[in-house]
Amino acid sequence: MNSSINIALLASGIFLMTGMLTGVWKYAKIMSSPEHRAPAYVNLAHMASFFYAFASLIIAKLIEFSPFSGGVQTLIVSVPITFFVLTVAGYIREGVFESNREYVCRKDIRNDDFYVLVDRRRDRRIRAHFGRVHLYADFGIWEP
Predict the structure, then answer these.
(1) In whole angstroms, how far apart are CA 92 and each of 35, 50, 54, 119, 125?
(2) CB count in 10 Å sphere of residue 111
(3) How distant is the alpha carbon of residue 76 from its chain centre?
(4) What distance in Å separates the CA atoms of residue 61 and residue 133, rounded to the nearest whole number?
(5) pTM for this one?
(6) CA 54 distance to own-chain centroid
(7) Nearest-angstrom CA–CA distance, 70 and 4
(8) 117: left (phi > 0), else alpha (psi -120 to 50), else beta?
(9) What is the pLDDT of residues 85-135, one digit of tens each?
(10) Is the backbone of residue 36 left (phi > 0), alpha (psi -120 to 50) or beta?
């Protein structure tokens, strides 16, 4: 195996372990919460860790068929894994500080207002406004 496959497999194992550890953290937060819910970022860190563990396995398998040289393969593997690490680390940081803020991205496109509001407290709602057109998506997760 070349080094890029080893990097992807190592990252997958680290994400799997992070997912399990954040699962213990999530469970502790659920049991200590009066609503029996984990904070949004703790939940996101837990789910994203498992998703990225699987994504890293797919990257490792796909890189086996890459026609590029070893250095280019390492770069190809390192870019998404770096993004994955920064994302999970950001979720963990926000979970540690128990943040529940909303992130708003506002841009002007051809004199029409465009912005996307991601409601992080609810962990699954997205509102997009394009001038006078308003879109709303609810990525609900079934909860008993």
Answers:
(1) 21, 14, 19, 17, 20
(2) 6
(3) 19
(4) 42
(5) 0.69
(6) 12
(7) 7
(8) beta
(9) 999 998 899 888 887 665 544 444 444 444 445 544 454 555 554 545 555
(10) left
